[in-house]
Amino acid sequence: MIQKIKKGELTTQQIVLLIILIASFAVILFFLFRLNLSEQTQKEICHNSVVLKGKSNLAGELDCKTSYVCISGGEECKDILPTETIKIDSSKDSEKVKEETLQAIADKMAECWWMFGEGKVDYVGLNIEGATIGQVNCAVCSTIKFDENIKNYAGQNTFGDLYDYLSTTKKDNSQTYLQYLRQSSTYDKTNPVYSESINFNEDYVVVTGIAKEGAIRATAFWLGSGYDLLNSWVPFVEFDKFDKSGDYGPFPAIIVKQSELDKVGCDNFITKA
Predict the structure, then answer these.
(1) Taking the C-alpha atoms of 105, 108, 110 and 115 in order, what is their torsion angle to the nearest 10 degrees?
(2) How confident is the model at residue 34 (pLDDT cuts 50, 70, 90)?
(3) Phi-psi region of 118 (alpha: psi -120 to 50; beta: other; left: phi over 0)
């Protein structure tokens, strides 16, 4: 005798199909998490909003969020919920750990510069009526922390070590990191900032932005210049100023201690926390 299936009941075939669909969805979510595509998507969203703002005549906020990066030698970074974890093999010798750590920082600086248009896009709306514009408009791309293994095995590093890496290491086949970030292959090694240690116990931020001429003398210290940034540095690397009066221009991605971000003089933050 064939038993009729009551309305609303699931057949065995339907149940199996449902289980397969749920399992497949779980596998897809797992790989999305492993590939960190959500973070990659956020970078694309930010970059696209920067480009659109540069082409638009409308005031409005950018869709850019600060990412929270853990550079990890195998442990968790304390006091941070990372949106991205960069893994370093801390079992290697200290020189290799140092090199990979500097590469991770260099990649974050280059990524920040790309996200905000490589010095070619007015993303604050300098010529848009009603736009909120400060004298120093800062985009905090990343907050960076280091785990205990990096602190223990990466050795002593200075900003000079970082900029040596930027000036000698190829970002791609055509240019070094420093050439990409500053359109220059050298930096002023005599500036005392480069002898300062990178303290892996500290949090750091990667920052770029658009500023008014004469407003960021403190920032010039971090860029290795003893002069006003837009009077001396920007024309040298041939970045154009953005507004009609010629008062505003870009400054490149830099890395500073989070506790000393106020030295940059930001009075308008254009990224969301």
Answers:
(1) -170
(2) low
(3) left
